Amino acid sequence: MLREGQASTIYRADYQAPAWWIETVDLTFDLDPAKTRVLNKMRIRRNPDVPAQALRLDGDELNLARVMVNGGGTSFKMDGSQLVLENLPEGDDPVELEIFTTCAPEKNTKLMGLYVSEGTFFTQCESEGFRRITYFLDRPDVMAMYSVTLRANKQAYPVLLSNGNLVEAGDLEDGRHFAKWIDPHKKPSYLFALVAGKLVAREQKIKSRAGKDHLLQVFVRPGDLEKTEHAMNALMHSVAWDEARFGLSLDLDRFMIVATSDFNMGAMENKGLNIFNTKYVLASQSTATDVDFANVESVVGHEYFHNWTGNRITCRDWFQLSLKEGLTVFRDQEFSMDMAGTPSARAVKRIEDVRVLRTVQFPEDAGPMAHPVRPDSYIEINNFYTVTIYEKGAEVVRMQHNLVGREGFAKGMELYFARHDGQAVTCDDFVQAMADANPASPLAQHLEQFKHWYSQAGTPTVKAVGQYDATAQTYTLTLSQSCAPTAGQAEKLPFVIPVEMGLLGQDGSALPLQLQTESESESTFSKTLVLTESEQTWVFTNVTQQPVPSLLRGFSAPVVLQYDFSDAELLVQLANDSDSFNRWEAGQRLALRYALQAVTSQEAVPANVLPEAFIHALRDVLRHSTLDAAYKDLVLALPSEAYMAEQLDMVDPQRIHAVRESMRQQLATALQTDWAWAFDTYGDTGAYRPDPVSSGKRALAGTALLMLCLAARTSGDTVWPGKAYQRFKDAGNMTDRFNALSALVHSGAELAQPALERFHAMFQAEPLVIDKWFSLQAGTCDRGGNVLPSIKQLMKHPDFSLKNPNRARSLIFSYCSANPGAFHRTDAAGYVFWSERVLELDAINPQVAARLARALDRWSKLVEPYRTAAREAIARVAAKPDLSNDVREVVTRAIAD
User: Fold this and answer.
1) How many Cβ atoms from other residues are within 10 Å of residue 168's Cβ?
2) What is the pTM of this model?
3) N or C: which end of the chain has fewer CB within 10 A?
């Protein structure tokens, strides 16, 4: 028997509106960790647009005590996990339905529904967690008005929170108290939330542009309050930005954020009561890195922006998940770029976002879990909270933004809210509003074809061919597109692909662009070509010299660009391209080219993979007088092993690892003097500020220190490891301290072990910092197979718990999903370890287990002996009879023929 019953596939095409609407929900909770009592009073009404049928309410692991209809008893039956009422009154009149259930929050290790974390009650209801609290029509298109009364022991749970506005509170008998909350806005059940426990709050009163007063609150456990200032500032900036950029104001008297250390996701946008992983709330200079500070700002913004794009307008069904997530990721990316300020800082953010897309989403698009931005089917919806839905979905929104322009996008958003505020709608509704608000735009002209981005899986490839005619002074550019088959989609229709481009002279200067159909006065230095056919050609006139094409500027579409650049052309771009993305991309293309040449060679891995011209170009970047440090750091970073692997049909992970390590060692040694200069130049940023400029300097100084320690490993020099250890001890902020520790660990320095011991002793009371400690050791460079034994030992550490998702991710995921050189072992021990952990986690938290199961998505690309061993490990997991639907869907798709 399957633990959750035989898994069935749910199809988008089968969507039907509910037979019943729920108009109001009145919930009363008597909170107790062992046995919480939930009284659910609903006013329901038949949907006149649907033929009359029974009411079927979803439930999961509930104890049903009572069901009443209009104040009296009623008959009901159970159909699997559903509560079915067949004899409800006929007609259009509302029906009063009362259901009394109990649940056991302290036993809820899935962290879905109502659960207890360190003595505090929390909820997580997206996507189908509300059914673990009470029987309900647990689907996003059922939107109701909620009132919630919480009752609990006052000493144990002095703070009682739920959605909306607090309307009443007071004491009860026996040391108990209550709080009543009413949400003034309709919402689906997945946005319900409650929190109860011993919490303290940072509070800030603000006045909106419309002159309305609001109370912002960030709740944390006592002792963490001083780490909430940055989160509060991020929240205030988010409120102001959404008003300024899109005219969207906060629509509640108060807005609350609550942090918990036990959370499956990053954060959740419950209406007015956002529940966050502590990782994205708590930050101080002594415990959080610059990356942590940036992530807090981004995630706080993301969840706040959901208040409109997700809450006020929500999804008709879960196939439309990207309607809220892709749009809101785009909004939080724009927010972060606007907060960054300078064009260079904006470019850094864009490059960071594209790196995630290409190293994680592109492989997903090519793997067994490939799915469109709007999927057509699923078995377990939790498996589709993916980089395709979020990050690729954001790129689809960004293309719409670019096709209609910034002002046009604002008009489209305005029309979207005018049409659909308070509704549950589809991805089609959003793109239709964008097109209707901009009828003359390329989006409107190619609307139906543009929707292929929502319906077709896979990453398109754009092939470019350029031809220069010196006599006619014309440049002919031909673009063609294709997309490889994916499961269930053998044939792909052409996409609408905006390709922003420019032309450079041989000296790197920008050349004017004038299409054959344009007058000279219409020439610009950058144009967006809209590719809609399988192949199209554009002719540029008055091109006075052989140009170097700069294509797909700003990564204007989520595609793979193929163009036969020469090394010389890429070096011109690396030195001169005015488009910051393509300047970075030129360096990545060169590094990738040299890496793949070495990987596919039959010879031993050479000590010097990189040619002198490339090293010289990187030296010029490092010592450039005007480039920002953060941008330099990105340009100097080699492509990841995972990204290299995706460029190959067959993958030898150990060969890739050896080649990349050789490249890194070569850069460390060849630029040793330059790294020392960079460390001296950028190593002191003065008083700590997590702004982009200061953060970039610390990042580059950290990279320089790592490179100097790597060079010392080869030379036997002890000076730089000694300096790294001293910096580790003396650092005034976590970024510098952790960078120094990482330099010692990743270079395998003798001082790494005493530094690790000292770090743990310093921060053993800080869970998020200890997560870093575990993650660093799991992600370090494998030398002689030493990482896996270290991880097995760390699993026995008293600070390790598999039940805490953050801790599991910090150790297990950092090894299996982010350290290919250590994970892919010839003895298959890494795969055996993976299979054991997936099964162990599945019994505790299927959602987290399914994420870990994705680590072997790309097993079929591996060469032997890895390929057979990996498949055997997946089959071992799939053979377990009581797997959750979450894990079963992942592993069965992975090994499907």
Assistant:
1) 10
2) 0.98
3) C
